[in-house]
Amino acid sequence: MIAHLQGKLVEKSPTQIVIDCGGVGYDVHISLHTYSLLPNSDFIKVFTYLQIKEDAHTLFGFIEKSEREIFKLLISVSGIGAGIARTMLSSLDPKQITNAIASGDVGTVQSIKGIGSKTAQRVILDLKDKVLKLYDLDEVSMSQSNTNRDEALSALEVLGFVRKASEKVIEKIIKEDPDASVESIIKQALKSL
Q1: Nearest by Cα to 26 from 39, 1, 40
Q2: Contact at 8 Å (CB) between 64 and 37?
Q3: pTM value?
Q4: What is the pLDDT along the chain (193 residues), one digit of tens a residue?
Q5: Which among 42, 40, 31, 33 has a CA at the least distance from the CA of 9?
C-alpha cells in the first residue's frame, strides 16, 4: 500500500525513525543496517513495507530496496514474524543473509538471537531456491573459505600429502570452523594426517 516515504527526518533512533511527509509524521521501524546507512541530511527517502494486523498497522522502512525484498522473503517463512526478520537484518547485513541462505549455512542463520535450529533450517529450505533465482547466485559456498581451502590444499600437496586424504581432512576442519585462516587449516590438517 505504501511503497516509499520521502520527507524530512524528524527523529531517529537505532530501531525507528519519524519522517515528516507534508505535515504528517510517519513512525517507521528500521533495522540497524538501515540505521547505519541513514544519510546525514534532513531529507530522506525510505522504501517501506506496511504490516497490517488486527490490532496495529506497522510501517517498516529500508534505505535499500534489496533489504526490503529480503525482509519480505523472511516474513514469508512460517515462524518468522516481522520482529524476528528485523532482528535478522540488524544482526547481519542483507548480503550475509542471502549468502547464508544460498549456501545452506544453518550455523550463520541460527547465530541470530531468537532463531533456533528448526527455524534456521526452515528459512534455508523455504528460501534457498528463491534467493538463488532472485540474486542469480551459484549454489557453491560463497565464503572466503573456498580460497583458504584451495590454498591449504595446494600447500599440503607441496608438502607431499595425498590430495584425496588432504581434501577429506580440510573439509572436516572447514565444517567445524568456516572462518579458519589458511595457516590454521594447515596446522590442524597436519595434526590429522
Answers
A1: 1
A2: yes
A3: 0.68
A4: 789 999 999 999 999 999 999 999 999 999 999 999 998 888 999 999 999 999 999 999 999 998 999 999 999 998 899 999 999 999 888 888 988 888 888 888 888 888 888 898 999 999 988 887 776 655 444 444 467 777 888 888 878 888 788 888 888 888 888 778 888 888 888 888 7
A5: 42
CA distance 152 to 128: 29
b/e map 23-44, b = 16+ CB within 10 Å? eeebebbbbbbbbeeeeeeeeb
C-alpha–C-alpha distance, residues 6 and 119, integer Å:
35
SS (H, E, C) 89-113: HHHCCHHHHHHHHHCCCHHHHHCCC
The distance of Cα 30 from the centroid of its chain, to the nearest Å, equals 15
Q: How far is it, in rounded angstroms, from Cα 96 to Cα 94?
A: 5
